[in-house]
C-alpha cells in the first residue's frame, strides 16, 4: 500500500508543513507545481529531497489560484485547463530531472480534484493533458469518480486513492471542507480508517454507511496540524496490519 502526502505547498518565505520530515515517512510525494501553491525554489528543494530518499514524485496540479490555495472552483474552457495542467507537469519535470529523477504520476489538487471527480469536461481536460505529456503516467484519483473512469477509458492507469483524514459522504465523495464532518482529527480514528480502506477496500461514511473504497494509495494531508505524527501513526498502523508500505508504481 502506498502512503502519499501533499508537499511543497509553501510559497516564497512562507512554508506550510514539514516537507522533509514527511518525506521520511511517505512513499509518494504530491508536489505542488506553482499554481495553487509552491514556487520554483520550493519545487526544486522538495524534488531533491524526495529523490534522495527514493520517494516517488507526482505532479500535484491545480487551478491557477494562489490566493485561494486552489480550493475555489474555476469554470475553465477545457482546452485552457488542459494546457494549464500540461504546463504544471512540465515545470515539475524540470526540477525532477535536475534531481536525477522524473515525474512518476499526476494528481489533481483541491477544487480541481473534486470537480474532476464529477465533471466530465474538467476530467477530460486532465486526461488530455496527461495523454499529451506521457500516456505512461498514472493518474491518482478517487475510485469510481468520473476522472477515474475517463482515465481508464483513455488507456491511462488510474490509481484509486483514499483519504484517512477526510470525511466521506454516502455516495463515496468527500465531504466539502465547508461542511461539518469534512475533517477527521482523532489519530486513532485516522489510523483505523486508513487500515480499513487499505485492507478491506471500504470506509464508513458520515451517516454510518459502509462505502466501497478500493484504493492503492492512502493520503495524509501535509497541511493538517500534527501531520508528521499522523503520517507516522498511519504507516505504523498499515505495517501492523501486515501491509507492505511502498510506492504504487512498479
Walk me through what this model shows:
- The protein is an alpha/beta fold and 250 residues long.
- The protein has eight helices and nine strands.
- It has a seven-stranded parallel β-sheet with strand order 4-3-2-1-9-6-5. The protein has a two-stranded antiparallel sheet with strand order 7-8.
- Strand 3, helix 3 and strand 4 form a beta-alpha-beta unit.
- Helix 2 crosses helix 3.
- It starts with a strand and ends in a 10-residue tail after the last helix.
Could you tell me the strand content as a percent range? 15-25%
Q: In what order do the strands lie side by side in the largest sheet?
A: 4-3-2-1-9-6-5
* Count of DSSP H/I helices: 8
Morphology: globular
Cα radius of gyration in angstroms: 16 Å
- C-alpha termini separation: 12 Å
**Main sheet characteristics:** 7 strands, parallel
Order of H and E elements: EHEHEHEHHEHEHEEEH
Structural class comes to: alpha/beta
Task: Give a count of the beta strands, DSSP E runs of length 2 or more.
Answer: 9
Instruction: Calculate the mean pLDDT score and round it.
Output: 95
Helix content: 25-40%
Poorly predicted runs are none
Amino acid at each position: 500500500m502506498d502512503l502519499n502526502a501533499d508537499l511543497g505547498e509553501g510559497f516564497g518565505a512562507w512554508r506550510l508543513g514539514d516537507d522533509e520530515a514527511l518525506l521520511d515517512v511517505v512513499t509518494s510525494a504530491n508536489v505542488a507545481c506553482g499554481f495553487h501553491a509552491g514556487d520554483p525554489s520550493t519545487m526544486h528543494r522538495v524534488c531533491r529531497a524526495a529523490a534522495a530518499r527514493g520517494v516517488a514524485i507526482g505532479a500535484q496540479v491545480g487551478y491557477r489560484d494562489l490566493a485561494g490555495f486552489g480550493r475555489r472552483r474555476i469554470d475553465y474552457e477545457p482546452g485552457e485547463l488542459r494546457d494549464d495542467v500540461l504546463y504544471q507537469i512540465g515545470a515539475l519535470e524540470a526540477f525532477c530531472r535536475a534531481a536525477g529523477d522524473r515525474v512518476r504520476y499526476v494528481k489533481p489538487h483541491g477544487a480541481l480534484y473534486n470537480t474532476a471527480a464529477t465533471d466530465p469536461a474538467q476530467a477530460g481536460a486532465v486526461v488530455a493533458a496527461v495523454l499529451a505529456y506521457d500516456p505512461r503516467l498514472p493518474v491518482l484519483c478517487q475510485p469510481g469518480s468520473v476522472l477515474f473512469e475517463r482515465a481508464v477509458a483513455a488507456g491511462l492507469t488510474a490509481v484509486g486513492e483514499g483519504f484517512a483524514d477526510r470525511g466521506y459522504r454516502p455516495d463515496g465523495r468527500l465531504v466539502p471542507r465547508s461542511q461539518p464532518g469534512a475533517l477527521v482529527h482523532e489519530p486513532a480514528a485516522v489510523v483505523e480508517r486508513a487500515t480499513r480502506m487499505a485492507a478491506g477496500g471500504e470506509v464508513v461514511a458520515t451517516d454510518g454507511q459502509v462505502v466501497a473504497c478500493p484504493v492503492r494509495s492512502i493520503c495524509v494531508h501535509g497541511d493538517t496540524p500534527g501531520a508528521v505524527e499522523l503520517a507516522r501513526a498511519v504507516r505504523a498502523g498499515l505495517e501492523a496490519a501486515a501491509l507492505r508500505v511502498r510506492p504504487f508504481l512498479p
